[in-house]
Amino acid sequence: MTRENVTEIMTENMTEAAKSLPGRLRKMNIPVLCFFLILCLYLALNWGNYNKLPWQTAVEGASFSSAARGYEGEYYAIDSGGARLLSFGENGVFRWDAASDATLGAVAAADSGRVYVTSYVFDDNDRIIQADILEYNRRGRRVGTLLSRSYEGAEDTLPMYTSGYLSLVSAGQWLYYMEKHPSDLTLYRIDAGSETPAPEVLSVFPYPDAEALTLGAACDPETGAAYTADKFGVIRELSLNGAHKELPYPARAEAGFSLPFGLYAGGGTLYVSDVGRRQMYRLQDGAFEPAADLGGDMPLDEDFRLYYWINGAPEGEILLISQYGLIRYGGGGLESLGASFVFDGIKRLTLWLWWISAGVMAAGALVLVCRIFMYAYRKVGMERLMYSLMLTVVVTVVTVLVMAQYSDSFNKRFSNTTIDNLSALSAMTAAAVDGDALSRINRLEDYRGADYEKLKAQLAPVRGGGTWNMLYEDGEFRPDAADWDNGIYRMLIRVVDGRVYYVYSSADQWGALYPVDYPYEGTEFQIAYEQDVQIVFPSVVDFSGEYTYTVTPILDSRGDVAGALEMGVNLRAFRREMLETLREVALRAAVTVCEVLLLLNEIIFAAGVFRNRAAKGKKGLADVGAVRPLMFLLYLLDCFALVVSPLFARDLYTETLGIPMEVGVAIAYSATFFFSGAASAAGGRAAGRFGLFPLLIAGTAFLFGGELAAMASGNLWMFTAAKSLMGVGVGLVQYCADVIAAAQKDPRDVEHGFSMSNVGYNSGTNCGLVTGTAIGLLWGYRSVYLASALIALLMLAYILLIYRSSNLPDTKGVRRRAGGGFVRFAAAPGVLGFFLLIMFPYMLCNAFAYYFLPLAGTAGGMGEENISRIIFAYGLVSIYVGPALTRRLLDVFKVRTALAMGGLLIMLALLIYALKPGLTVLAVSVAIFAIADSFSFTVQSVYFSRLPETAEYGSGAALGVNNVMSGLAQSLSSYCFAAALVLGTGTGLGVIGAGMGVLLILFLVTTQNKKRIKAGVS
Question: What is the pTM of this model?
Fold first, then answer.
C-alpha cells in the first residue's frame, strides 16, 4: 500500500468521522440534558435542604411558640420566633421543616393529616395588617390558604400583635378559633374540608376592653364552653349574656403569685399554665387542682423556663411549650421532648444526595460558563470579550463598594444619633417616674390601684407612635407614606423575690407583672440595680428583630433603686427600609446601565447595518440582519405603553358603557393582538399585489395614526379603535420582517434572520417597557403615546433609508402554488401538528411571564417595579443568550429536537411552580422560561419555514397564517392562566404543565416522516 493510498484512506475515515460527529454529539448531549433537567427539578422540589449540612447530626430548635401532636404520633412546632414550621417523630427524629416569610403563630393538627398554622404580617409597630390560616400536608408541603384577612386603617385601629386567631383547635373536619375585639370575644368555626371554606360565627361573648385585658383564651369544641384569663389573674367562663362566671382560681402562695397565662380546654376539662407559680392546674368539679409542677420548686438560677403556651394532644395528653423546649404531660407525668431533633439515616443520606446534586449542578454550570466564554472568545475575539467583562466587573464592583460605604456610614451616623437621643430621653423619663409608686406594685392586685394609674399617666407623654411628615398635594395635607415611623417602646422593670418582671409595657400589650424567662443574676438589670448606672445597648439582634435600647435605674424618695426603665427603638423597620433603599439604588443603577448598554448595542448594530447596506442600483437582497433594528423600533414603540395601556383604559372607562370595567379594559388590551393576527393574514394577499415595501410604509402609517389616536382618546371605545389601528400596523410590519427572514436562500441566513428578529423584539420590548413607564410617571399617560408616535416617524425614516423595492424579496404578483387553499394547507398533518401540538400551546404558556408573574408576584408581596425588572432580565436572556444558544442547538440537534427541548423546559417550569409555589420558585420558573424563549421562537420560525407544506403553499402566505395563530394564542393566553388561577395555582398550573407534556409527546410521535427528514426538520 502506497503512502498516497494510506493518506486517502485516512482522509476518508476522518471525513466520515466528521460527518458522524453531530450525531455522536446528539446522542451524548440528549441524555446529559435530560439528566440536568431532572437534577434541576430535584433540587427545586427539595430546596429546604439548602440550610442543612450533611455532616450535621441534628436540627437545634431556637425559640418555640406553639406545638401540636398529629394523630399518627408525629409532632409539629413553631420555631425560630415564628419563622418556620418544624415536624419531628415521637422519638425526637427530625422529619421536615418549612420556612415562612410571615410570622407563624399557632399550629393545630387534624385527624385528616392536614396541619393548620396561623400566620401574621405586622407593620413597623407590631400591629397586624394580614392574618392567614395556612394549610400544610403531612409531608410539609403547603397546599393552600384556608382563611385570609387584611386589615387597613389608622394605626390605633389595627389589631395588636397579641390579637389574631386565638385558641386554634381542630376537631374532626372543623377548625375552631377565637378572636378578641374591642368589646367582645367571638368564637368561630370553619369547615376545613369544604372547597370554599368560610368562617361561621358560633358565639359572641360581650366583653368590654377585651382586646386590652385578655391575656389568654380557650374554647372546648365538645361542650362549646369558652374561657378567658385577664391581666389581673382572673379566669372566667364566658357567657352569651355578658354575665361571665369568675372561676375560683387558687389564692396566691406565700412565695410568688399566680399569673394564669396559657389556657387549653378539651374533653370538658380546662388546663391552665401558671407562669407566676410555674405550675399547671386542672379544673375538676368546679375547682382547680395542681396537675404538674413546671419548675416552681426549683431556684430561678437553675431552671428559669416559663411554659407560656399550652395545647392539647390526642389521647388526652397536654403539650406545654416554652421558648427553650417542649414537654408532654400524660398518664406517666411529664416527659421532655427537648429542643434538638436528630436526623435518621435516610435523612442524612438525602442531605448528602442533595448537596452532591448541588455540587454536580454547580460544576455543570461552571463548565457551561467556560464553554460560553470560549464560544464568545471565538466569535468576538479576546480584546472585545475582555472589554465587556471588564466593563461589567467595574460597574458591579463600583456599585457594591459605593453602596457598602454608604450603608456603613449612614448606619453609624443613625445609630450614634439614636443612642445619644435615646440615652438622654431615657434618663429624663426615669427621673420623672415616681419610684415610690413603682416600689408599691408587687402583686396583681396592685394593678387596680392608684399607683399603677399614676405610672401610666407619667409614661403616657412618651409616645410610641413616632412622627409623620406632612405633604401638601392636590389642595390638601397628606402624610408622607415614605416617612419612617420611629416608634419608641418603654417598659418598667421590677425585681421581686429575685425574679425580673415587666411592670408596665407599651400599650399594656402584655399586662401586669409579666415574668421574664431568664434569671436576674448576671444580667444588665443586676448592674443597673446594684450599681445605679445606665446601661446602653447600641445593637442587639435576636429572632424578633434588632434593637437599640437603654436600661436606666429609677430611684425612690430615699435614693434607693426601686426599679428600672427599659426604653428602646426597634431598628427592624429602619434596617428594612435602608436595605430596601440601597437595593433600589443598586437595582436602578444596574437596570439603567443595562438599558443604556442595550440602546448603545442596538445603535452600534444599526450603524453596522447602514455601513453594509447595498449601494443604490445594486441588485440583491438587503442584509438579513437589518430586520433587527426594524423589529427593535417596532416593539420599542409598541411596548412603550405595555404597563400604561391597562391603566389608561381604566381611567377612560365609564359605567355608561354597560359592561364591567375589567371586561372593557380586557377588550381594549387584547385588540392589538387580534388585529395584529388579522393584518398578518391580510398581509399575505397584499404582498402579492403590492409588494413588501408599500406594506412596510402602510404598517408604519397605521402605527403613527394609532398612537396619535390613542393620545387623543376621550373614551374607551375610541381608545379600543386606536389599539386596533396599532395592531394592524404591528401585524403588517411583523409580517414583512418574517418574509424577509424566510426568503433567504441560505438556511443559515434564515436562522440568522429569525434570530435577529427575536433579539430585536426582546430588546425593543425591554427598552420600551422601562422607558415608557418612566415617561408615563413623569408626564402622564398621554405623553407615552406621543413618544411612540415619534418613534414611528423614526422607524419610517429607517425603512426609507434601508429598504427599497429592489432589495426586498419579490412578492408582487406571486400567487400561491398548487398546494391548495387555506383549509388544505392548515389541515396538512405537518402544519396541523405544529400549530396544535407545539406553537399554539407554547404561546398560551407564554403568558406566564407577562400575565401570571405580575399577579403571583404582587400576591406574594413583590412590588411592581421588581416585577418589571424580572421581565427586563427575562428579555436580556433572549437578547444576549438567544442567538448563540440557537446556533449551538441547531448545530448539534435537528430543528425538531430543539423545538421539543423548548417545550420540555416550559413543562418543567410550570410543574416546578405547581408543586412548590413561592417567590423563589417563581423566579426560578421565570428563568427557565427565559432560557426556553431565547431559542424556541426562532426555532419555531425555522421549523415552520422549512416544512414542505409551507413551500408548497407559499412562504409569504404561510407566515401570515402563522402570525394569525400566534396572535390568537396570545389573545387567549391570559384567559388560560386566569382559568388556572380559578382552579388553584397548584392544580391549574399542574394541568397546564401536564397538558404541555402530553402534547409534546404527541408532537414527537406524529411529526416524523421521510419527507420532513429530507427538508431538515426531523
Answer: 0.61
